[in-house]
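Researcher: We are triaging several targets before committing to wet-lab work. For this one, the compound of interest is NAP. I'm pasting the protein sequence and the ligand SMILES. What I need is the predicted three-dimensional arrangement of the protein with the ligand bound, expressed as structure tokens, so it can go straight into our comparison scripts without reformatting.
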Amino acid sequence: MAWRKIDGARTLVTGCSSGIGRELARELARQGARLIVTARREERIRELVHELQEAGTEIHSVVGDITEPGVREALATSVEEHFGALDLLINNAGVGAIGHFAKADELRLRKIMEVNFFAPAELTRALIPLLQRGTHPMIVNVGSVLGHVGIPKKSEYVASKFALHGWSDALRCELGPQGVDVLLVSPSTTKSEFFDNVLEKRDHLPWLSLGGQSARAVARKTVRAIRWGSYEIILTPGGKALVWADRLFPTVVGYFSSRLG
Ligand SMILES: NC(=O)c1ccc[n+]([C@@H]2O[C@H](COP(=O)([O-])OP(=O)(O)OC[C@H]3O[C@@H](n4cnc5c(N)ncnc54)[C@H](OP(=O)(O)O)[C@@H]3O)[C@@H](O)[C@H]2O)c1
């Protein structure tokens, strides 16, 4: 795959009101990208637009819920009007929940799948024609180490990120020959608002107290992988070790994971 320039890249990033998405917008702006940003919290998006405009970035915004078809249509219209084509689509918006599957209801599963899987899939479908007109276009899907390894108390989230992983691999095969690359980014635990924003917290995850990587570090590594045209990145040594251990010794990893539940 080709080495690509960020300078001038026409880019859409979802989930920019906090955490990884906001840091991605900042890092991409620093490297000269032209941006469309989106999320539901209007004030946060307004602040980001102001900050990056002050620094000389071309930035536009669409405020709304990514699970609504009308919001995804508005994003496609914004790309068409402002850029005419798209070079980078970053599907980052995501949500989780903590607690056992058996104690939750269907709504929790459906909400998580809507935000983490159906919304990015349908946004991508709407934007493929604009990506096909782009320069070295790339779709970047922000997954998780939990899109490679299952753990207890996050079953719906794990399912959504495995779905995103499988879909990314299939899409890469379909779109690669047409010149559209697909990168799957798999962060480990990251310091952001993610665990404050979970849909439900019916339990606790003991490893959260260990902290995690910064959202800024995730953004920088992601932008580097975009430039180098990677297929997939797992961002921490611990994440890589867990994914490889699970591939090589699934019963051992399964045994220790079940003791967390
Ligand atoms: N934090 C971690 O430990 C971790 C680890 C691995 C992977 N990830 C992944 O990284 C991505 C970013 O998460 P983060 O850690 O940066 O969490 P975060 O700070 O909570 O950011 C999540 C972003 O998604 C947006 N969002 C959520 N639901 C939305 C909806 N229905 N419509 C539109 N936007 C929505 C939020 O904006 P609004 O609320 O303003 O809409 C926010 O901007 C997610 O896909 C997450 O699964 C996170």
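Researcher: Any quick observations?
Model: The longest strand covers residues 34-39.
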